[in-house]
Amino acid sequence: MIGQAAKFSLGQIVWNQGTQYRGVIVDVDPEFQGAEDWLEGLEDTEPQRHQPWYSLLVDDTEQMAYVPEQSLVHDNSEVPVNNPAMDYFVGEMENGRYTVQQTLN
């Protein structure tokens, strides 16, 4: 099965509704590309495999997250994201989104 078209794009700031954090998108997969046991461990949220999954730099942490599209909404705040890996993945913020310098793939 082919995944659906991505709703969000690289450099966009989003809010994770489930775990209540914001981050910037640095990569997107057309569908889940992680380990099966990790996906099975998320039974409480029941994310669908065949949807876009995003790699995010999580704001105010050193963490990166892998999140299904169903958990995300656009963050309109235009407040910069603070993560030590920002300089590696993204450039300057322009019009509420970051320019992308490097992806994971």
In short:
It holds the Pfam family YccV-like. This is Heat shock protein HspQ. The chain has 105 residues and is mainly beta.
Descriptive notes:
It is built from two helices and seven strands, in the order ββαβββαββ. A five-stranded antiparallel beta sheet has the order 4-3-2-1-5, with no helix packed on it. The chain has a two-stranded antiparallel sheet with strand order 6-7. The chain has one domain: SH3 type barrels, CATH 2.30.30. Strand 3 and strand 4 form a beta hairpin. With 105 residues, it is mainly beta.
Assembly type of the chains comes to: single chain
CATH topology: SH3 type barrels
Could you give a short account of the major beta sheet? Answer: 5 strands, antiparallel
CATH class: Mainly Beta
Q: How are the strands ordered across the major sheet?
A: 4-3-2-1-5
Q: How many angstroms separate the termini? A: 21 Å
Low confidence ranges: none
Mind telling me the C-alpha Rg? Answer: 13 Å
InterPro entries: Hemimethylated_DNA-bd_dom (IPR011722), Hemimethylated_DNA-bd_sf (IPR036623)
Keywords: Stress response
Organism: Thiohalorhabdus denitrificans
GO molecular function, one term: DNA binding
